[in-house]
Amino acid sequence: MDLSSAVSATASTLRRRPADLLPFYLLGTAIPVVARVGLFVAVAGTYLHYELTGRLADARRALADLDLTPPDTQDPEAVQAWAEGVAPALEPLASPTAILLLTLGTAATLLLAILTYAAVSAGQMSAVAGRVRGGRGLTAGIAGVRGRWLTFLGLYVAEVLLWAGVLLLAGVAVGGASLVNPFLGALVALVALLVGLVVLLLVRAVFAFAPAAVVVDETGVIGAVEGAAGFIRSNPVDALAYLVVAVGVLVAISSAASALAFFGGGAVVALASAVVAAPALDLLKTVLYGDHRGAVAPVDPVDARLRDQFLDGVRRGWREMTGFVRRTPGLHAVAVLVGVGFGAVGWLAADPFVGAVTTSIDSRLVGHLPPAAALNFFGNNWSVAIATSLGGVALVIPAISSIAFNGLALGAVAALEENLAALVAFVVPHGVLEIPALFISGALGIHLGIVSWRTFRGRLSHEAFADVLERAFWVLVGVGALIAVAAFIEGFVSPYYWRPFL
User: What's the whole-model pTM score?
Assistant: First the structure.
């Protein structure tokens, strides 16, 4: 199959039943939400340690006697003097127990991120392979998470070790030659640079296709590396074409993110790269490799126009979202209680710092550009909603922690706001849509966690879990529509309408 045919097959597969593939790529955006649970537990343990030992009370009393307003950052001496004045008040917080807890929490967060990334990648590529073969992607992806996560972890570890080995070997060669003769060291460094670059490019090329080999050939790490290397030897033009396309997509994404950063579009570009570019590239390399193995089912082109398909999807998403809200009042009550409860905790926790530390809605709106702000609000808030919902797949806890974290942050910001009436006036117009949307995403995360637990225990089939994931995708589309309207109001209405009155 030539590159043009592979691209056409990729586009058709991606457009046909997107809800049968994209939930796993939305799940990829939830990896930080899952991973940070380790750090959240460590922070909670540290706070409890401070309270039980009286260290937090000591720090509060010491800080109450100080002026915590930071000096002008352009005066280094003033900044240093301010830091030296504040540091003694924070000494009670520097206990060995707190340092140990935070170190363990950081290590747990890193480990969770690596393991979750391996599991999600296994699900994504397994779903892609299922679609390429003409089957149901979500069912294949669910099976792939449990059956292939260790293989994908092995692939990533193997590539890291190979890169480290090549760089270490080059360093040893250059260092040894430099000890003999500086000129020889420079010559060896040049050769090592050229040879090492070629070797590392070959390593990256092999490991780019190795995940496709895992899911197409249903093999392990060694078999996947051998299969990927064999594909590159047999189809060097197709392999090179894919790598060129992949690099071009990455460059285009980076350029778009840089160009749109001023207009607030960075979050939208990041989300688009996660749920459009990533599945498209995975599909493309799997189609190329699958065709090499004779494992690609024919895909008919999609006749519907992209605009009509998009509008139909938004309408379906709205129906699924409203239906989900009606069916799960209990889950929404839990999400509201967690959010409001931790909002109150954030308010109370910030109370000792009221007056010493302030936030200002007026200062945050300086330089406000309505179109850029609306785009940024939409991208950020929908990303948070998606991550909260899909993070719940990891047995509920990440979804609840995300709701709690956002409630805590909003409560603390509100407590420290110097003009609370202005903050409330700013939040109300868009908040009546945005806040319910975030609570819906939290309830959806709890729902997905319960379903995943039942599936893990064998009480629910993979097919039934796939149905739930597909409906969750459409609910998130409806949530996205709600957040889009809220973002427009937040960008164009919320900053201005109250100013004549307050």
Answer: 0.92
